[in-house]
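dumping this here before i forget
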Amino acid sequence: MAKMILSDGEWRIMNLLWVSSPRRVPELTEALQGDTGWSRATVNMMLNRLEEKGAVASEVQGRAKVYYPLLSQADARQKETARFLDRLYGGSLGLMVSSMAGQQALSEADLNALRAILAEAEEKEKTDAE
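structure:
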C-alpha cells in the first residue's frame, strides 16, 4: 500500500466511502450519477480496482455485496500530498509555499494557519530533541 496512487475517479468513490460505509454498488452509483454519469458497470470496475489496490474491501451482506474503505482518508491525503510535492516541487514544501505566496494565493487566514503549523512543528522538534 506504500505506493498506492488513486485516480480522480477512485478519489470520488473513496470520499463517499469515508463519509458512510459500508455501501452497496447501487447506492454509490446513485450518489455519483449527477457528477459523473457513471453506470453501475463503471462503479463496479472502479471498486474492483480499489480492491486490487487494497484501498477497499467487500463482503456479502444478505444478497448484496457491500464495500468499505481499508485505506484511511488521512493516509490517502498524506500519500497524495507527498506525491504532489515530489512531482511539482521536488519534495520541497518551502518551494511550494514560496510559489503560492508569490502568486498571492495565500489569504491572511492561510498565513495565520501556516504560522500556527510552523509554531507547532518547532515545538514538536524541541520536544523530540530533549
